[in-house]
């Protein structure tokens, strides 16, 4: 199963970006989004260190809500 995490771009340096999600920051490659304009403040789906899709803030929030719900269920099963 593949999993991509929504993150917000906080800094861009060429084809690299520093992205943040839930207090965690990571270096992310923007190489796969060469044809799309991206800017600081945009949200992207990140998979294995690569931004693979630009998304809206609402889409990012919805994804995080679903992840939080799944973690809550798993936490209650322990």
> What is the C-alpha radius of gyration, as a whole number of Å?
13 Å
CATH topology: SH3 type barrels
CATH architect. name: Roll
Number of helices: 1
Form type:
elongated
Helix content: 25-40%
Number of domains: 1
Spatial order of the strands forming the largest sheet: 3-2-1-4-5
> What is the N-to-C succession of helices and strands?
EEEEEH
Distance between the termini: 22 Å
* Low-confidence runs of at least 5 consecutive residues: none
How many β-strand stretches?
A: 5
- The level 1 CATH classification is Mainly Beta
Q: Pairing-aware structural class of the strands and helices?
A: alpha+beta
Mean pLDDT: 93
Strand residue percentage: 35-45%
Main beta sheet: 5 strands, antiparallel
Account of the protein in words:
With 78 residues, this protein is an alpha+beta fold. Helices cover 27% and strands 41% of the residues. It has one helix and five strands, in the order βββββα. The protein has a five-stranded antiparallel sheet, with helices on one face. It starts with a strand and ends with a helix.
What's this model, at a glance?
The chain is of the alpha+beta class and about 80 residues long. The chain has 1 helix and 5 strands, in the order βββββα.
Jot down its keywords.
78 residues; alpha+beta; SH3 type barrels; five-stranded antiparallel β-sheet; 1 helix; 41% strand
Secondary structure layout plus pairing:
Layout: E1 5-13, E2 16-21, E3 24-29, E4 43-47, E5 50-55, H1 57-77
Antiparallel strand pairs: 1-2, 1-4, 2-3, 4-5
């Amino acid at each position: 199963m593949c999993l991509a995490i929504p993150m917000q771009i906080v800094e861009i340096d060429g084809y690299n970006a520093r992205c943040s999600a839930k207090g965690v920051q990571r270096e992310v490659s923007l190489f796969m989004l060469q044809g799309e304009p991206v800017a600081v403040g945009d949200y992207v789906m990140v998979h294995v260190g690569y931004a693979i899709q630009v998304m809206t803030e609402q889409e990012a929030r919805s994804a995080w809500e679903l992840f939080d719900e799944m973690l809550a269920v798993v936490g209650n099963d322990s």
